[in-house]
């Protein structure tokens, strides 16, 4: 399947190679995850902002993704991932359900 169809299905898989949309800001990248592949949400922008804060994103949310270093890219990927129901990583599984409190290891 092409990436846009996979996104609309709400499926995400990562190989620890962060591939954001480089011309979009960090917030816009997370907003894509908060908007597509999910049931209709009343305020995806608020969710995207909350997830960036939740993963302690170290920079301004308006920074272009193309200018992020490796650590910021990892946090951006986490923020994108936690917009969905479950995030599973190598050695770490983080369940995200019903807007509960999350704990991350980077």
Major sheet details? 2 strands, antiparallel
How much of the sequence lies in strands comes to 5-15%
Helix content range: 25-40%
The count of DSSP E runs of length 2 or more, i.e. the number of strands, is 2
Number of helices: 4
In the predicted model, the low-confidence regions spanning at least 5 consecutive residues are 90-101
Strand ordering within the main sheet: 1-2
Give the SSE order as H and E letters. Answer: HHHHEE
What overall form do the CA principal axes indicate?
Answer: globular
Query: Could you tell me how far the N terminus lies from the C terminus, measured between alpha carbons in angstroms?
Result: 30 Å
Mean pLDDT: 78
Structural class: mainly alpha
Radius of gyration: 13 Å
Fill in the keyword field for this structure.
mainly alpha; two-stranded antiparallel sheet; globular
Descriptive account of the structure:
The protein is mainly alpha-helical and 106 residues long. The chain has 4 helices and 2 strands, in the order ααααββ. The protein has a two-stranded antiparallel ribbon with strand order 1-2. Strand 1 and strand 2 form a beta hairpin. Helix 2 packs across helix 3 and helix 3 crosses helix 4.
Summed up:
The chain is mostly helical. It has helices spanning 3-9, 26-35, 44-54, 70-81, and strands spanning 86-89, 92-95.
Write the layout of secondary structure elements.
Blueprint: H1 3-9, H2 26-35, H3 44-54, H4 70-81, E1 86-89, E2 92-95
Antiparallel strand pairs: 1-2
Helix pairs in contact: 2-3, 2-4, 3-4
